[in-house]
Structures are given as structure tokens and as C-alpha cells.
Amino acid sequence: MAGGGLARWRRALHGPSPVLPAWLDALSECWASLSARGRAVVALSGIVLFLSGCAWWAAGVAARWGGSPVPVLVAERQLAPGDAVTGLRLVELPPAAVPSAAATDVPEGARMAFALPAGSVLTQAHLDARGPGAALPEDQRAMPIPVEEGWRVTAGGWVDVWVLGMEDRPSVLVAAACPVLAVAADDMGAGTALVALPRAAVGEVAQGLTAGRVLLAHAPPPG
């Protein structure tokens, strides 16, 4: 069986040349009629045209993305405010994808000023020594509020802050659509959310926390 197959292959390799399309046949005739020097010139011209096309394509890609890639530090895991600045890797991104003031090195002992999601680029603002307050507007304050794991309050979310009523006093919405800057849990599983509040609401929330009557409700982003 194997011998018969080999014989068929041998017969297929003998005989007249296959008929080429007219344009390809003319091209092969032209190539055959060239001298050795002429073939070298044609081959060299083809290589130059190919390299020029590659350079033109690369220049187009660079122009579209703002230039050549630049090195930046990207978080491999989510970092919360106060965390040591670790778990970063150096990658190259096109300039159009790099935020302003991107960091390329981390000072020794640096801590996170505010949250950095996994896969995001580290910036100098994340290393601000003022901590979470560095990212707050003048009329806001960051305040820790206890949360339970089942509430599913996470950094980057938005919450309404309620102070629950007692006896005949109704519950009060103290602040609406407040950003959650960070969420941390201790060894016992108790959680604390760092919430940005309007400065005018800090006193009322503090009183509610003293009585253990503060509740966070999930809210959509403002606007």
C-alpha cells in the first residue's frame, strides 16, 4: 500500500510543467530573461519597498497612539489607601493610554494616598503624603464608618449615609451619593468604609456613630 502511494507521488513529479496563469507565466519569463545583476537589483528593490512599508505602518501606529511606548508602573492587585506600595510591574504603554504624572519609581516606604484598582497605572497623586485627603475637594472630609461584609460596600462605590432614628425620632438622610474611598477589614472580620462626606454632615454622622446608629445604603453615582 505504501509502495503504491510512493509510486503515484513519483509519477506526479514527472511530466510537463503545469500551466501557469498568463500574468504569472509572463512574469516568470521576464524574470528568466534578466541578467544576474538585474535580478539582484529587482530583489533589492523589493526588500527596500517591504521595509519602507513596515516603517510607514509603524509610523502610522505611533501617530495614532501618540508616539513610542513609554514605561509605567501598573498595579497587579488592588491597593487601598494606607497600603504599602507593592505588587507593581513595569510595562510599556502608548502615550495616549498613560495618565498625566504617571510614576516610574516608588520612594522607599511609600504608602497609597487613595485606592488604585488592579491593572491601573500608578501616578504621583497616588503617592501624595497627605493621604486620602489629597483627592478630596475643599468642602469634603473622609470619615471611617463601620460596615458588615454582607452589605457589599466596596471601594469606588457610592452610598447614602443615614442616621437611624430612636424611639419617636425618624431616620435622617445625612448625605446622599457619597464616594467610598476604601474598605478595610480587621482580623475579626469587622469592616470599615472610608467615606467622603460633605463637611457640614461630619458632626451629625459623628453623633450617629457614637450611638451606633449609622447605616450606609447603596446609591447610584451623582448626576
What does this structure look like?
The protein has 223 residues and is α+β, with helices and mostly antiparallel strands. It is elongated and about 105 Å long. The termini are far apart. The model has no long low-confidence stretch (mean pLDDT 82).
Average pLDDT, all residues: 82
Number of separate strands: 7
Q: Strand sequence of the main sheet, in spatial order?
A: 3-6-5-4-7
Number of helices: 4
Indicate the overall shape: elongated
Biggest sheet, in brief?
5 strands, antiparallel
The H/E string reads HHHEEEEEEHE
Protein topology:
Layout (H helix, E strand, L loop, with lengths): L1 H11 L9 H12 L2 H29 L5 E6 L12 E6 L46 E8 L10 E6 L8 E14 L5 E8 L3 H9 L3 E5 L5
Antiparallel strand pairs: 1-2, 3-6, 4-5, 4-7, 5-6
Descriptive keywords:
223 residues; alpha+beta; two-stranded antiparallel ribbon; 7 strands; 27% helix
Summarize the structure.
The chain has 223 residues and is an alpha+beta fold.
